[in-house]
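Problem statement: downstream parser choked on a complex file, so we are re-checking the raw output for the zinc ion run. The parser issue turned out to be on our end (a line-ending mismatch), but while we're here, posting the original submission so the record is complete.
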Amino acid sequence: MTTPHHCHAHDCQRVILPRLFMCRKHWFSLPVKLRDAVQSEYRRGQEIDKRPTARYMAVQQYAVCRTAFKKFDEAASLVCAEYLTRAIMWQRRAIEAGDGDPLKGLIPEEKKKDQAQGELF
Ligand SMILES: [Zn+2]
């Protein structure tokens, strides 16, 4: 018997098909561009061999970050920050491996501190 596969959104316990990333509610809460990125980085069978690419892990962790974020909620922001930190770690690994930037176009480019304020997403 296999263990049930849950939605990857933070704190969501909904059981979903192993090939799916999130339950319907969380999946459709993501921006289309991010959903497209998760789908294009997905490699068929990665849920079986448990060997997703660094590019997939970067967009996946960023997507989980997005589902955890709630405006004006400090606790939710801290949870989101943990996923964002992991997304950036995987982003660096992908770039260092020569696979390009998986988060390009998904997160704001680095800007001067005063310009970036309030533009996390
Ligand atoms: Zn969910």
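For whoever reads this later: The longest strand covers residues 5-6.
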